[in-house]
Every structure is written in C-alpha cells, then in structure tokens.
Amino acid sequence: MSKRPSPVSPTVDFDADGIQHGFLKLPISTDESAWGAVMIPITVINNGAGPTALLTAGNHGDEYEGITALLKLSNTLRAEDVRGRVIIVPIMNVPAATAGKRTSGLDGGNLNRSFPGNPDGGVTEQIADYFTRELVPMCDVALDLHSGGRTLDILPFAAAHRLDDRTQEAQSLAGAVSFGAPVAMMMFELDATKLYDTAVESQGKTFVTTELGGGGTTTPERMAIAERGVRNFLIPYGLIEGQLESPAGQQVYVDMPDASCYVQSEHSGLLELSFALGETVRRGDVIARIYDMTRTGSEPIVYHAQRDGVLVARRFPAQVNMGDTIAVIAEVVDSLER
Ligand SMILES: [Zn+2]
Questions:
Q1: Residues 6+ apart with CB under 8 A from 299
Q2: CA–CA separation, 305 vs 254, rounded Å?
Q3: Mean pLDDT value across residues 287-308
Q4: Which of 48, 152, 252, 291 is most buried, most CB within 10 Å of its CB?
C-alpha cells in the first residue's frame, strides 16, 4: 500500500544555488497552538556539481555536542567553500530538544526508534518518514551526530556498522576513520530495526554515526572533536577543501563483536564504577558495585567484566535501575577491515 505524501513542507529550495536557512514545517494542533507547526531548522548550501552530504544531530534532544557543532557550522560554512551540496539539520527532533529530553515533548516518541516512520503516525513518526522518503534519497553520504545524553557518558567515537554490502561497509568505515575522533568503531546495536542508521544504510548510502560525549552537556574538548570531525567528514568527498585533522594521539580502533559488550544492571541502587572511560578492562575485573540505598550493613552487588577491552561508555547518573546499561566494553583491534 503506497503512503500518502509527507505532511512536512520545507521553506527551502533544495536545488537553488547559494546558502539558505529555513525550516521543515510539520503541521500540529495542540492546546498551545490549534493551527501550529513544528519548525525544524535546516540549512541548504549548494555550489556547483558534486555529491550531497546530509549532516544531522538532535535525533535525540539532549545530545548537545552534535547539535552545537551543526548550529555553528550552519553559521560559518560559506557557499563558496562548498563543491556540491551540504544539507544541515542540527535538531531533527525539535520537540525533544525543546523539552530538553531524549524523547519528544509532544508525543513521547524516540525518533531513533521510529524509522522508517509513517506520514499518518504521531509527530515523531512523521519526522522520521520525511527523512526516509525525502531527505535521505537526496544524499550520497550521511553523518548523524549522537552522544550519550543525560543518562550515558561515552568516549568520543565515530562508527560504522557491519553491512551485507562490503563496499558500502568499507566506504562507511572510511568515513568513520576520517572523522578523526580519538576512537573509530565498528558498532554493534542492541536493536537496529527502527534506527535512522538502518533507514539510511538500507538506501545504499555511506553512513557514519558518532557518540561524542554525554551527560546532557558539552565540554571544550568534546566540542573540538565534534567540530573537527564534521569538517573532516566533508573533505574526502571534495565537498570542502582542506587537510584532514588528526586526533591528538594515535586513533584507537575498537570493535563490538556482539551484545556481550553491554553490561546491563539486574539490580537497582547506587552505582560505583571501578574504571574511567578509556581505561583498559580485563575479563573478570570488578567493573561496578551497586549499593542498596535502603539500608546499611549490606554488601554491594559486584559486576565483573565478561570480556577484555576498553571502557567506551558508562551510565552517567549514579542512581541505577534494573535493565540500565551501566558499562560498554569494546575490543581494541589493529584493524576494522575484514
Ligand atoms: Zn542519540
């Protein structure tokens, strides 16, 4: 059954030369605005022949490193610097960012669990559908900037996924490496079905995702990684000129072969992690203790690492509930190619 056209209307012309700042307008009707619209800011830069890059952030509303980096890029990238087309959407899920949350303040939707989307669904599914059917088909390469948000803190990395199409996988991996974060990763997703990543990859595009920090804030160090990475991403495709800027130290390659990389809590309480982000962990090491906050005199629950590796992500708030991911241990490898 064919879907109706997207209800989203752009105020920009994707084929016009030069730089345009506008909006993707999605009609809504709420208590605050009977005939209103969600206004998703967008910048389109067109200058001559070349590929199209789609740069996105704010897929989750509380992941500020990427949002800030793309807002800055939209103010600084000039049309004469570009060969081809760059489409910048710094805040995909505006209702989530407005609420300062991961998920939408309008319908509770988690945009990155809503793809491929639905023009007749809720606001979040309607945003996903516009990307899947309108924006993604326009692009050759796509970069989606995430970080840990309020509940995770993540060692800054750019990543690709294992794909059936080896050429597409290699091109995506090359993009993740040239992003120039301290870590480049082959990422394993707990459930990839409804991700934007999967929607883009299934259209055969080169796709790079990132995790650039977290905790619901930014730091100067992580902003520098995000801003450098966004420019680095554009250079290999000839979209902008320049030399790739490398991270300060040697770039580390890490692989996540399977779900055992994720340490998830089976208890609720107060979390004490024994390792900092980036530290080396050995199988059997005590990685975390969880304390019962309701009483004194009880021993903590001890969690041991199930594999060797490096701590690439951790729960950010100290309070932890059953099911929360408390740590992610990835394997350091010499090469990510297969
Ligand atoms: Zn995210």
A1: none
A2: 17
A3: 97
A4: 152
Amino acid 28 reads I
CA of 331 to the centre of ligand 1 (A): 22
| Helix, strand, coil fractions of the chain, as percent rounded to 5 | 25, 30, 45
Domain enclosing residue 100, as ranges: 9-254
CATH number assigned to the domain comprising residue 166: 3.40.630.10
User: Ligand 1 centre and the CA of 280: distance in Å?
Assistant: 25
Q: How far is the CA of 231 from the centre of ligand 1 (A)?
A: 20
105-142 pLDDT, tens per residue?
A: 999 999 999 999 999 999 999 999 999 999 999 999 99
- Shared domain for 136 and 165, answered yes or no, is yes
Q: How many Å is the maximal CA-CA distance in the chain?
A: 70
Q: Of 180, 336, 177, whose CA–CA distance to 248 is shortest?
A: 180
Question: Mean pLDDT throughout 200-224?
Answer: 98
The CA distance from 329 to 306, in Å, is 9
Q: Which residue has the tokens 């209800």?
A: 7
- Provide the H-helix boundaries in 150-207: 166-178, 196-201
59: CA distance to ligand 1 center in Å? 6
How far does the centroid of ligand 1 lie from the alpha carbon of residue 212, in Å?
A: 10
